[in-house]
Amino acid sequence: MKRMGFVLVVGGIALALTCSALAQNAGDTSNYFVTYYSNNVSGAPDGTVRLINDGDSGSTLWADFYVFDDSEELSECCSCPITADGVLSESVQKELMANPLSGPVRTRGVIKVIGDSAGNPYNPTLAAGLHGWATHVQKATSGYVTTESPLADSNLGPDELYGWTMPYICQILIELGSGYGACSCTPEDQDF
After folding, report:
1. Contact 32, 127 (CB under 8 A)
2. What is the pLDDT of residue 57?
3. pLDDT digit string (tens) for 26-56?
4. Is 76 helix (H, G, I), strand (E, B) or coil?
5. How confident is the model at residue 22, as a pLDDT?
6. Which residue among 2, 7, 128, 161 is least packed, with the fewest CB closer than 10 Å?
7. Contact 29, 128 (CB under 8 A)
8. Cα 25 to chain center, whole Å?
9. Is the separation of the CB atoms in 44 and 114 below 8 Å?
């Protein structure tokens, strides 16, 4: 009977150590995020998207930005590098919506971010390790209020990644836009 108890205790310890090791190695595998921007108007505070590379891969990752206006049209796209354990801060007004392909700068829309290990927004190589937050500008009774929230972890389906999709439209936007449609990147670890 004592032997059976000993075997159960040793087996329980082994199981606990195995589960603990699996939990430690089961990091966040997210590679696609969404947020919104609003009140992108003169006199309002600037919205911000901040991303970190958690360093788990030990290498540089890129944040591929795809910025849509409120008519669901891709206005700008780009790929910004973030080294392991680095921080990237992007201004909605100065980097992500300063150079739209057509028409005036839109006041609201959607920002999508793909974690990419190759730095090619036309053909991203999906990579986990990015985590992000965005500030949102809300109209108040008098003036504006800024809030911050994590980027929403989303599901990137084949319809959005392959074929007539964000990366493909981004390529057309950049190649045919005569300089318009390409967002810019703030140097890493610097605020704009």
Report:
1. no
2. 87
3. 557 889 999 999 998 889 999 999 999 999 9
4. strand
5. 41
6. 2
7. yes
8. 22
9. no
